[in-house]
Amino acid sequence: MNGMDFSRLDGLLAGLNLGPLEQVTLVMGKRLSGGHVPPFPVDVPALVLDVTEVKSAREALLTQYPAGHPIRVTGSDGEWGDLLLGEWEQAGSVYLPALAIGASFESFHEIIAHLRAPDGCPWDRQQTHLTLRKHLLEETYETLAAMDAGEAEKMSEEFGDLLLQIVLNGQVAVEAGEFTLAQVVKGIYDKIIRRHPHVFGEAQVDGVGQVLSNWESIKKDERRKKGDGEKSLLDGLPAALPALSQAQEYQDRAARVGFDWPAVDGVLEKVREEIEEVRLAGNVEELADELGDLFFALVNLARWKNVDAEAALRAASQKFRRRFEYIEQRAQALGKPIRSMNLQELDDLWNEAKQQG
């Protein structure tokens, strides 16, 4: 069967004995087996016909549904039987009851659109791209903090808050006639396919370096087709990007075209050279310039060692905060104002704090 055999649906649905359904998604089994995630909203019941590659279909479904999700499948006799998704092994058609309302992108978009509707929230209705800018920035940094901490539950929450900002801005654009969220998704969908010819096309690559080189070449061709003028390899980074991240990205891009040290020894020597130049700086202006060069060299060392410089410094700052707060707490416990303690006393407490982690 090449497509949906609608003549079978009455019998299949009657066999399920579900009663009236407001909505159900119908999908051919090969569509599910050939993918990596369910190709339908999971907060709507789904009927998948003629699944032959059960293992791949089950793995795709398990990316969104729990293993204990109840399903119904057809057996060799064509009758429906009940079991759990994680137990499913036999080929046939499968019926998946919906997950809770709100588990799909479509449902989430609907509640955001409702917030912006005439009967929605006065605050949300007043927002514009510009007024939402600060919230997008705040949520981005909160998401990064959760990622740095490696806290899965917190990351899940912050990804949701970040998604809210994206969809809310998208809905503002929909109402202004600027673009639709479907256009946003389609645009990035096409871009990903276009920029990964080694995955979705016939191109061959021999490693990450060639992937990145191809990426830059494809971007250059995209600009040419749009009629954009020739741009520097370093163009396109937002001015508001944190300085360490900006420096590391510049270095990454330059390295893609071969502008890089042949070995890490050269990077280390450059760091030593910049430290000496900082030591010899004659005035504040020179010192600021040389410190900038030193920071840049240290970022390059981080890049060579596959360390995210921004994340590393953020982690170091948080570690300092924890240890300094320990000093404050211990000073209070000792009944001594921290300002009255000498450097040796503070250093002793610092060493205590280091033992704490």
Characterization of this structure:
By secondary structure, the chain is α+β, with helices and mostly antiparallel strands. The chain has helices at 9-16, 29-33, 54-61, 105-116, 122-126, 129-149, 152-176, 181-194, 197-200, 208-226, 243-256, 264-280, 284-304, 309-334, 343-356, and strands at 25-28, 46-51, 70-74, 80-84, 92-96. Strands 1-2-5-3-4 form a 5-stranded mixed sheet. The protein has 4 domains: 6-96, Methyltransferase, Cobalt-precorrin-4 Transmethylase, Domain 2 (2-Layer Sandwich); 105-194, MazG-like (Helix Hairpins, Orthogonal Bundle), CATH 1.10.287.1080; 243-307, Helix Hairpins (Orthogonal Bundle); 310-356. The longest helix is centred in the C-terminal third of the chain and has 26 residues, at 309-334. The chain has 15 helices and 5 strands. The model has no long low-confidence stretch (mean pLDDT 90). It starts with 8 loop residues before the first helix and ends with a helix. Helix 2 (29-33) links the parallel strand 1 (25-28) and strand 2 (46-51). Helix 11 (243-256) packs across helix 13 (284-304).
